[in-house]
């Protein structure tokens, strides 16, 4: 789910990027500086950068993205997509299910051994 953030300038904005077309990785937020403008927004580490000042980042290299951000003198507008940790999501669904199944399996094993 995409969302927009506007950081009021001037910079520094308080976040770092990783990835880019030259790394064959999507541009993502790799770090947010505590207390920064970015930290006071909804941005989170791992969020995907979809657009910078309305320009799609799909074909941007890391340097092009950095330069686009540096060129924002007053406000920086970002379109981001929330990071979803699939492992955490799967585990949060599976653990309650496993916990509900184990007592039944233990019971069946006890009955089977009688």
UniProtKB/TrEMBL annotation:
Which Pfam families does the UniProt entry name for this protein?
A: PDZ (PF00595)
Q: Which GO terms describe its molecular function?
A: actin binding; muscle alpha-actinin binding
Q: Note the superkingdom of the native organism.
A: Eukaryota
Entry GO CC:
adherens junction; filamentous actin; stress fiber; Z disc
Keyword Cytoplasm on this protein?
A: yes
Please tell me whether the keyword Zinc is annotated for this protein: yes
Chain ranges of the PDZ domain: 1-84
**Which key words are in the record?**
Cytoplasm, LIM domain, Metal-binding, Zinc
Tell me where in or outside the cell this protein is found: Cytoplasm
Return the PROSITE patterns for the record: PDZ
Its Gene Ontology biological processes?
A: actin cytoskeleton organization; heart development; muscle structure development
Q: Where are the transmembrane segments?
A: none
Q: What name has this protein been given in UniProt?
A: PDZ domain-containing protein
Q: Which organism is it from?
A: Pavo cristatus (Indian peafowl)
């Amino acid at each position: 789910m995409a969302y927009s953030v506007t950081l009021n300038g001037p910079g520094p904005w308080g976040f770092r990027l990783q990835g880019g077309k030259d790394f064959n990785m999507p541009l993502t937020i790799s770090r947010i500086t505590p207390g920064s403008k970015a930290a006071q927004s909804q941005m989170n580490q791992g969020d995907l950068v979809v657009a910078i000042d309305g320009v799609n980042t799909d074909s941007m290299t890391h340097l092009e993205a950095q330069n686009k951000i540096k060129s924002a003198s007053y406000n920086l507008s970002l379109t981001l997509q929330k990071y979803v940790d699939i492992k955490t999501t799967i585990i949060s669904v599976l653990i309650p299910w496993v916990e509900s199944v184990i007592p039944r399996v233990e019971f069946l094993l006890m009955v089977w051994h009688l």
